[in-house]
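Page 47, continued from p. 46.
Same chain as before, 732 aa.
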Amino acid sequence: MASTSRTLWAINPKKRFKAYVQTCVSLLKKFSNQGLITQGNVLHAHLIKTGLSSQKYIASNLLILYLNCRKFAAIDQIVKEFDGSDLVVHNCLISANIQWGNLDQARTLFDEMPERNEVSWTALISGFMKHGRVGESMWYFERNPFQNVVSWTAAISGLVRNGLNFEALKLFFRLLESGVRPNDVTFTSVLRACGELHGFGLGMSVLGLVVKSGFEHYLSVSNSLITLSLRMGEIDLARRVFDRMEKRDVVSWTAILDVYVETGDLREARRIFDQMPERNEISWSAMIARYSQSGYGEEALKLFSKMVWEGFKPNVSCFACTLSALAGLKALSAGINIHGHTIKIGINKDVFIGSSLIDLYCKCGNPDDGRLVFDLILEKNVVCWNSIVGGYSVNGRLEEAEELFELIPEKNDVSWGTIIAGYLENGQSEKVLEIFNTLLLSGQTPNKSTFSSVLCACASIASLDKGMNVHGKIIKLGIQYDIFVGTALTDMYSKCGDIGSSKQVFERMPEKNEISWTVMIQGLAESGFAEESLMMFEEMERTSEVAPNELMLLSVLFACSHCGLVDKGLGYFISMEKVYGIKPKGMHYTCVVDLLSRSGRLNEAEEFIRNMPFQPEANAFSALLSGCNKYKDAKIAERTAKKLWELAEKNSAGYVLLSNIYASSGRWIDVSNIRKFMRERGLKKSGGCSWVEVRNQVHSFYSEDGCHFQSDEIYGTLQLLRSEMLGVETQQ
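Result:
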């Protein structure tokens, strides 16, 4: 700037008039764009001194400077010097009033003009569009005598900006019929409209017209083509467009980055991100958001730190995604620091920032702090309502969660899904079904996630009738082939004991993922179809690309244990790390102990426990004790029971099993000693539980429990039956 000013003072206006004027205009434009009114005033004084301030071209640029800086006294002075009737002055005043939002004043100025040109009409058309007054804009467009490509494009792009994509395409067809040739800006807007409407066939037709018109290498057109290709799912086409671009800007790079971000290819997305010669806040936010959403919270935080270090200012979206990543990591301290920064820059009350903060505090076990954030949000939307309901649910405060749920002004499917998931996570399956019925009565359609939660509740109480009823609703909505819903149905039927229906649902699924296969293999194993479970696992390895996971291999070991396939089970256990790259955990070791114990190889089982690389689970000793009970081995049982008591002093299972072993061996004194010891410690055998479903209501019963609301009638009926049975015996 200083060098340009020095150049100006060095020019002799008399000898090099043209260069002098050009330098003055250049400086005025810079001062105008950057709002440097003081420098502008100095230059204006200099121009008055040289007698050039009244030159029309210089005066119009001075007017633009003062309009941009809102210096109304100077504006009035310049307008007077033009005698108020100049076309350029009027156009400048119209544009300024539109920029300030004074649309009625802009229209008055337009109506007062003695003559108008295409700039006047286009300024009004685009101005009204910019402020959402589409009807008025189109009124002026239809009466515009200068319908050239600029005014057509102003109307088309304005309609797209206001979400009226179909109307924009109709206007584009009118443009083609009128004989006016579209320009690169026209094509950019039309391609965007095609993408928004998912009109991919039409988009390809427009692409043909773009190529025919020679605009395919224009930067903005190519960027729009990449975005359209992404919406079409045509990743290869998007990449070809990008690779053929002669020139790329940050929008181009961000567009191709979005292609891989949206498809979840994080490795390729990161490679492109690292190659970008220039990045903006959008590209940083896109990468941070995808890392956060994909469960890579630490990577998201590293990228956020790098973004700040490189001098970029995170936007609201970026802060929200970073807070979500911190919530996933339960990094409360770092979250509090970012919360403080959002307060400092004044965005803490933004609804998206607020929702992420609620999520952070609630996941870190501080729902009261989450509630404080919620109460400070000025304009609450359904997202923040859902966040606070979910937050209280996660922390087990279901009464408060339900109270807030009832206060949501407009519940959506996520709201219902959130409260249902909350009750499910807290083991209240009956309440889940109750709220689901209320949801259906409200007229709201459950989403796939809600159906999955409800099916899980049906499975947990083994309510086959309710599960089948839900299945019927799923079929009615046509979502039975969805991979998540199909997996939930498979799980529900297997846990309710209907393994045939479970297999039928599984086999009809057009697509199966790791969880689908795991559920089916586990369901077969736990339902007593161990051999079929192993066959299913082998079929998966043979026919699909799904890799076994920890839970799947646990089910395989479980199946081998119940089939008596000891060597095969041991083979799978050894293969876990060597073949599948999965390090066995405590539950896998426990399953091997059970495998050996069931087959009578008690010494091997005991040795296996002794050689575990970590502290054995109590269940491992329980499994060995069960084997000792089956095969009447009191010596190993005594050693195992001592180990179990050390690990689980309050657990009565080990004492009961050893007592049974002594009883089966006729060692009644030892049985008596154990029972006496249990009484002294206040230990009791866990009560059994059973349930029955009557008229769509599940009734649970526990041993020696009188909590059922019809207990008196139930025990009275049992006593009556007992009396009648004794009476029959007496008669006989």
